[in-house]
User: Which sequence fits this backbone?
């Protein structure tokens, strides 16, 4: 084995470089502990840069889906409550007509019908926080009800004239490539109810109508109301089915929200595994780096003492 | 031996050891001097007529090893190259931020998708529109800021290269001058001259700038060349020249030329140095400027172009509510006499302010006809101008249309609005873009060059270029050598095909431009020049009354794609009126009649379609080191950063390797040539003892003389 001679300056430079290297390693570990991140630049994540960037983006997209779905779910929930009220109004109409037949008294029937029409119109003309009509389909800037009184409704040739809403339904994107269509339009849910009210109003305005005019029902009035009950019952059932369909959409959105929460957890965990410092590892590394630096300093200090200069006699005169 | 002989021998010991102590003294003094090679004293016996007469210094040897020195120079060059690149990468990495921060392109894209998602649920809300405009602006500024950061760094690096040229020339001249002095010293017998140390320092410094190869001559001088043999110092010396700066984003190259030392005049022709650079900071600077940053800027441009095309295509397919009263498109660079060259069908509709159809003009480009409100057919002619005239006539009292200065403009009368809807089964297309997108009637993004480079122009279309316009091209290789610097001047009566032919003739077969059927121009370098790129270094042409040059219209040259990212921003139409971004989709059908609602306020299908743009797959061309691929905008953004990261880490790994190699080389060199203090102290002690012993002998001789003289 041959031992190379060593140049003093090179030796000093070598130990200095060891000290600098150990100092840099320590600094890097300290920075990673302080920031809580393994790196702060793209290059710092090496071959995981692409997957990290793509996952952060996917998670951000998921958050966007979550926000939009929450908005849609809120609207669907509100509609659910309102549609239940609408269904209850249909039941009230059925009861009012049935009561009139049972009690042989139609004197308050039209007052009740007017009240039901007003309440139904108010529901169908609801607006959201942005001032858009909820039941107007695409025409969110137009009131979906074209008539404002029961009399106007009764005078229409067709019930379709009572509605001014569009047909478009809103959609919400709940995941990459998955869209859920939601919301109902006024004509969708209220055509049956308005048809029943229109027929009643039209009869009332006709020759054998005028329920308020007599204490007891005439034969014609009784026949009409008896016949109308079946239609109103059918309409109520139909409306209930629409409420259920809206509930189904609400469930789809709730399912989507659950899925979004799972994806959020998954993405965040994945990102954290790559991006965040493992403190246990980092603390161990810090300790190792400190020892390394200390050793480099001690060796350098020790070598400085080792010189022939200390042993050669000083020439004396 | 006589007493005189003994005295003379002792005196030779004093002289020799005194001189040796001088050498030790120099070694100790220069213990920390960079480039200093230790001297050793070679002693020899002093003999007169074969008789031993003491000691003498045969030579003072400078301990140097040519192999170790060359390895150190070579390692120094490579380490310097990667040190330079790593330093610049560190700067770039700091400037471009980190994953998930707000300046990230991927973040900009997802924030935009999020803004569209919010808008889709509240399409009429002004807050939604503000959110979308802010997100669009943020994405655009992320792209343009990244591009500008990279371009600034390129300029800064270019300036560093310019500055390095001056000091390099000084070093080359210095080595030449030292060679002259070393030759003189050598002739006088001084083989360990301090000039050698100075020359080693100069060589070392030169190797840091550019990779060099050295060979020592018998007269002590050294020949220096690039590693592939381009002369730097011999009987002549070379000087480098580089003025710096880019022409239209394309950088020139460094030239090298020999100089006659006697006259100071240049010799021969200047030649490109760039392809001969192998290691050194200059190589690091050039590679960073052209390959790394140039490549990153190209990928960024590619992404900007795809982003603009993707969002513009969707924005043009959407409809705003209420429809705007007027649509004015981009400067297409087209002129009235250009062939119409559209296929498919589109409908231009006039609506009232609540989105109800007022009248419709159905255009069948394939048949060359249009009809108003489903009525009889009328011809649209075959040129841009004839179409605009026919459309204007068809709109009648409901609106007007014109085509001037490359821009199509359609306006509705009064408070009515205009919207365009392509046929679902046979959509209109010119060069692959739909009618509205091609003319940029509802564009969102724009840049300093058009994102649509498939112009739909044909070879027989008139060039429309003013006579005397000049298009300059340069063809640059991957190593930085420029093989062509040519230009053409436009003449009267040329067609587009003639201009392409003229450019090809000027390039002399080194590369070929081809006008494709979609009106784009592709470039291919010949087999002799693989990997060479043609850049447009200047273009003073102007097409008709448009503000577009020939190269702008076609996105000509490898450097054009970079322009897509610089000044990437929103169109002034959208900036001035956020309501122009369509969140709805028009609903014209074949049976739509006046009074039908064809666009409504609460329609959010367009907003959702815009939200989905970032995840749709698109075809990306292979540029700047990223291969051609089908990817979403979001994924391509991630690829951009991975490419940056990979290149940065590769440079760091090379830096570590080359630094280790340099340390090793320097360690071996200094083991051989460096001063060891203990060794010198031992020598010091040894020469001191020898000197003392010699003096003692003189003292003894003196005593002997006295003894002799005392004999009486």
Assistant:
């Amino acid at each position: 084995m041959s031992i190379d001679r060593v140049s003093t300056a090179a030796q000093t430079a070598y130990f200095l470089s060891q000290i600098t290297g150990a100092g840099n390693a320590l600094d890097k570990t300290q920075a990673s502990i302080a920031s809580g991140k393994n790196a702060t630049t793209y290059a710092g994540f090496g071959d995981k840069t692409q997957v990290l960037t793509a996952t952060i983006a996917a998670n951000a997209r998921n958050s966007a889906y979550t926000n939009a779905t929450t908005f849609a779910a809120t609207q669907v929930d509100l509609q659910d409550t309102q549609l239940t009220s609408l269904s209850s109004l249909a039941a009230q109409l059925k009861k009012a007509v049935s009561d009139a037949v049972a009690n042989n008294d139609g004197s308050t029937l039209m007052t009740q019908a007017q009240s039901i029409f007003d309440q139904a119109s108010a529901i169908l003309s609801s607006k959201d926080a942005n001032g858009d009509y909820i039941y107007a389909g695409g025409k969110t800037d137009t009131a979906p009800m074209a008539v404002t009184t029961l009399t106007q409704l009764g005078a229409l040739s067709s019930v379709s004239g009572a509605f001014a809403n569009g047909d478009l339904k809103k959609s919400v994107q709940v995941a990459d490539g998955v869209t859920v269509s939601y919301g109902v339009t006024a004509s969708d849910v209220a055509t049956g109810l308005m048809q029943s009210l229109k027929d009643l109003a039209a009869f009332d305005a006709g020759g054998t109508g005028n329920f308020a005019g007599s204490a007891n029902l005439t034969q014609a009035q009784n026949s009409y109301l008896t016949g109308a009950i079946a239609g109103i019952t059918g309409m109520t059932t139909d409306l209930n089915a629409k409420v259920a369909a809206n509930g189904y959409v609400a469930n789809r959105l709730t399912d989507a929200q659950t899925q979004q929460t799972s994806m959020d957890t998954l993405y965040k965990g994945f990102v954290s595994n790559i991006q965040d410092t493992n403190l246990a590892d980092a603390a161990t590394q810090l300790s190792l780096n400190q020892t390394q630096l200390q050793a480099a300093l001690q060796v350098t200090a020790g070598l400085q003492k080792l010189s022939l200069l200390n042993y050669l006699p000083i020439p004396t005169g | 031996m006589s007493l005189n002989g003994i005295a003379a021998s002792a005196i030779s010991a004093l002289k020799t050891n005194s001189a040796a102590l001088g050498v030790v003294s120099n070694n100790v003094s220069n213990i920390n001097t960079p480039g200093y090679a230790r001297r050793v004293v070679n002693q020899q016996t002093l003999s007169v007529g074969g008789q031993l007469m003491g000691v003498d210094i045969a030579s003072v040897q400078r301990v140097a090893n040519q192999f170790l020195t060359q390895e150190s120079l070579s390692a120094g060059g490579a380490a310097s190259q990667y040190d330079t690149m790593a330093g610049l990468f560190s700067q770039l990495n700091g400037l471009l931020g980190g994953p998930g921060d707000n300046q990230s392109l991927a973040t900009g894209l997802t924030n935009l998708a999020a803004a569209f998602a919010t808008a889709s649920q509240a399409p009429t809300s002004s807050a939604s529109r503000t959110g979308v405009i802010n997100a669009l602006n943020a994405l655009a500024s992320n792209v343009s800021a990244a591009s500008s950061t990279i371009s600034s760094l390129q300029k800064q690096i270019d300036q560093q290269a310019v500055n390095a040229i001056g000091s390099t020339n000084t070093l080359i001249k210095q080595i030449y001058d030292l060679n002259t002095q070393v030759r003189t010293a050598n002739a006088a017998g001084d083989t360990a001259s301090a000039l050698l140390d100075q020359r080693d320092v100069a060589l070392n410094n030169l190797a840091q700038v550019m990779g060099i190869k050295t060979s020592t001559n018998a007269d002590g001088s050294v020949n220096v060349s690039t590693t592939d043999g381009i002369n730097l110092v011999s009987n002549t010396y070379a000087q480098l020249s580089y003025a710096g700066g880019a022409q239209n984003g394309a950088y020139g190259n460094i030239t090298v030329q020999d100089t006659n030392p006697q006259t100071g005049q240049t010799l021969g022709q200047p030649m490109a140095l760039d392809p001969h650079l192998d290691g050194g900071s200059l190589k690091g600077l050039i590679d960073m400027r052209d390959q790394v940053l140039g490549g990153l800027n190209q990928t960024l441009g590619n992404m900007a172009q795809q982003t603009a095309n993707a969002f513009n295509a969707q924005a043009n397919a959407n409809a705003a509510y209420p429809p705007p009263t007027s649509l004015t498109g981009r400067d297409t660079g087209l002129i009235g006499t250009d062939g119409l060259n559209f296929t498919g069908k589109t409908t231009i509709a006039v609506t009232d302010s609540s989105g109800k159809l007022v009248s419709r003009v159905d255009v069948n480009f394939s048949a060359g006809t249009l009809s108003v409100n489903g009525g009889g057919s009328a011809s649209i002619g075959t040129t841009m101008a004839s179409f605009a005239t026919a459309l204007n006539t068809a709109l009648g009292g409901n609106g007007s249309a014109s085509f001037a200065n490359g821009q199509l403009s359609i306006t509705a009368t009064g408070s009515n609005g205009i919207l365009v809807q392509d046929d679902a089964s046979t959509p209109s297309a010119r060069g692959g873009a739909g009618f509205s997108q091609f003319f940029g009637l509802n564009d969102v993004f724009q840049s300093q060059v058009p994102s649509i480079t498939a112009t739909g122009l044909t070879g027989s279309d008139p060039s429309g270029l003013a006579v005397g316009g000049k298009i300059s091209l340069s063809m640059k290789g991957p190593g930085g050598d420029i093989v062509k610097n040519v230009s053409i001047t436009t003449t009267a009566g040329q067609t587009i095909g003639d201009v392409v032919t003229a450019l090809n003739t000027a390039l002399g077969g080194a590369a070929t431009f081809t006008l494709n059927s979609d009106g784009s121009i592709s470039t291919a370098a010949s087999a002799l020049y693989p990997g060479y790129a043609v850049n447009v270094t200047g273009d003073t042409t102007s097409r008709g009354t448009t503000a577009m040059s020939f190269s702008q219209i076609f996105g000509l040259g490898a450097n054009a794609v970079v322009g897509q990212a610089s000044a990437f921003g929103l169109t002034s139409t959208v900036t001035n009126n956020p309501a122009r971004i369509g969140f709805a989709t028009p609903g014209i059908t074949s049976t739509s009649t006046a009074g039908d609602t064809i666009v409504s306020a609460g329609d959010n299908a367009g907003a959702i379609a815009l939200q989905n743009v970032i995840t749709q797959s698109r075809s990306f061309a292979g540029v700047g080191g990223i291969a051609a691929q089908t990817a979403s905008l979001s994924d391509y953004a991630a690829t951009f950063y991975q490419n940056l990261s990979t290149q940065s880490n590769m440079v760091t790994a090379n830096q570590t390797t080359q630094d280790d190699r340099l340390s090793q080389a320097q360690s071996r060199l200094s083991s051989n040539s460096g001063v060891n203090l203990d060794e010198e102290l031992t020598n010091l002690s040894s020469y001191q003892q020898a000197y003392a012993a010699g003096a003692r002998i003189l003292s003894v001789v003196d005593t002997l003389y006295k003894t002799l003289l005392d004999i009486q």
User: Anything to note?
Assistant: Residues 47 and 274 of chain A are 11 Å apart (CA to CA).
